[in-house]
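Need tRNA (guanine-N(1)-)-methyltransferase's 3D structure for a figure. Predict it.
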Amino acid sequence: MRIDIITVVPDLLKSPFEASIMQRSIAKGLVEVNFHNLRDYSTNAYKQVDDYQFGGGAGMVMMIEPIDKCISELKSQRDYDEVIYMTPDGETLNQKIANQISLQGNIIILCGHYKGVDQRVRDQFITREISIGDYVLSGGELGALILCDAVIRLIPGVLGNETSALTDSFQDNLLAPPVYTRPAEYKGWKVPEILTSGNTPKIEAWREDEAYKRTLERRPDLIKNQS
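Structure prediction for tRNA (guanine-N(1)-)-methyltransferase:
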């Protein structure tokens, strides 16, 4: 997968891709991530990429011209499956969306900033708008990082255990069950005996039951959505 991220603050994005799972995915050649500074596409002497709103109002708006130049240049080099805009009024990111995007080959992620982007950008270039929650951040960069992390870990070969991502919370509209590791007893606190029994069918049945109970307790809306 190739991910091209358009931003006014590329330095804010780079560090997370230099560590842990995202770094290893890049090192393995499973993912290619490129950062594009929008100011490089400005024709303004001061590298300006924002301006006042038509009609008045507080807050600056990202201009269409530098965004058009950047996206058009990228599209002239390859085809893209999605051009995603990170925005508070987009569809809320969930596991289903992450699964869908992980199957794509090339994507562009546009990070909003200031008061947002000129609506014509959204009308002409954007294929999908995604939010990470009902709150507003200073820009779309942190949202883009969350989207990338959620997507990259699903790509085959990224995680050491291929089945790990398939048992995450939300994959089957249930939260993940409790998990334990060594020691089996600590300060009198014991791991459920079923997990050390070696009886795989019973262990799986226990996990399914615990996942359902946890979901019913914490996120009953997920169970309702299945019916």
